[in-house]
Amino acid sequence: MSLPESQLERLETTVPVDVGDPEAVLGKSPTQLAMGRFRRDKLSMAAFVVVAVYSVGAVLAPVMVKLNVIDPLKLNQNLLDPSLGSIPKAKWGGISLAHPLGIVPGTGTDLLSRLWYGVTFSLTIALAASVLAIVIGTVLGIIGGFTGGWTDSVIGRFVDLTLSFPSTLMLLALSATGVALAAKVLPGSGSDPLPNGFYEVLVLGLFGWPPICRLIRGQVLSIREREFIDAAKLLGASRRRLYFKEILPNLWAPVLVSFTLTMPAYISAEAALSYLGVGIHPPTPTLGNILVDSINYSVADFTYFFFPALLIAVIVVSFNLLGDGLRDALDPKADR
Fold first, then answer.
1. Are 213 and 141 in contact (CB under 8 A)?
2. Domain of 289, in residue numbers
3. Span 157-166, mean pLDDT?
4. What is the pLDDT of residue 334?
5. How confident is the model over 234-252, as a mean pLDDT?
């Protein structure tokens, strides 16, 4: 029996596929599809590059300090004008080849060195607090969503109780006690940054996990009804295996998106805590305490205020754009 002419025309115009080429016949995994969607998003890719540059800079900053490439504590009093309130003698905050972003009023330290080294402390605090919040929220979300019953009810009420606490007020009220306890618990923590930073991480992490817990619980409620969970139960899988071998690998997408959206929130929170006097204190630089100190010179030396504010804004916006891009790439059904 001969084929109709229309079908013959379609067969003739069909582009032949070289079956010898593996790329032509192999499909793509969900991860490859998601990465392809992410790479096509130019704005998210630009944000990823910015985040990568800041992260690499934060890792290299301690090395650069040890090699004396940058020195955030070196005083340059000769570049300041005492008659004008110890602001830089030169225009634009003392910007020069030796000090590309100028110098800090009052001390004469190099602003670029302090910002570069401050990124390390700020990102470390935000990273540690984000990891702590995500670990607590993910574990409790999996247990509550999968187990259900009274266990889910107890975890739900614990979430409500945590959200009801005024976290900022509690942080301020317990700051002296918390930092003192951290200094006693941490070995060799005679320096100021370690106990203060540890206290910030604990407070941000312990008050930041409830939204993540609710998100993970909602995902688990859907996953636990799937066939592979029933198959694992029939094979005699333990609760631990069900939690961490069957369910957790299917939650990496919301966990990754939560991480990229939590990081900028904690970077901003570190700056806010420094303004309230709870964070790491000078001379150890963080983005928060540099910005807080620059407020005093916002009129006399605007560049000192402008560069820290711009740096924090760029980091926060980049992390938010990266999180939005990952969310769109990992969820193809979302509105793009």
1. yes
2. 39-73+83-330
3. 86
4. 54
5. 85
Burial class for 203, CB neighbours closer than 10 Å (0-12, 13-18, 19+): buried
User: Does 165 map to a domain?
Assistant: yes
DSSP H helices in 19-110: 22-25, 30-40, 42-66
Q: Say how many domains are in the chain.
A: 1
Question: What pLDDT band is residue 11 in, cutting at 50, 70 and 90?
Answer: very low
Average pLDDT over residues 84-99: 83
Q: Let me know if residue 93 belongs to a domain.
A: yes
Strand positions, DSSP E, the chain: 80-81, 87-88
With a pLDDT cut of 70, the percent of the chain lying above it is 85
Cis ω for the linkage preceding 283 (within 30 of 0): yes
How far is it, in rounded angstroms, from Cα 68 to Cα 61?
A: 10
**Cα dihedral sign, 125-127-133-139:** negative
* Domain presence at residue 336: no
175, 230 in Cβ contact below 8 A?
no
Q: Alpha-carbon distance 154 to 174, whole Å? A: 26
CA distance 61 to 54: 10
**Which CATH number goes with the domain that contains 109?**
1.10.3720.10
Q: What distance, in Å, lies between the first and last C-alpha atoms of the chain?
A: 48
The mean per-residue pLDDT over the stretch 40-46 comes to 90
Residues in contact with 311: Cβ distance below 8 Å, sequence separation at least 6, in sequence order: 115, 119, 287
Asked if pLDDT for residue 12 goes beyond 50, the answer is no
Q: Is 14 domain-assigned?
A: no
**CA–CA gap between residue 58 and residue 66 (Å, rounded):** 14
- Residue 128: pLDDT band with limits 50, 70, 90: very high
Spatial contact of 195 and 189, defined as CB atoms under 8 Å apart: yes
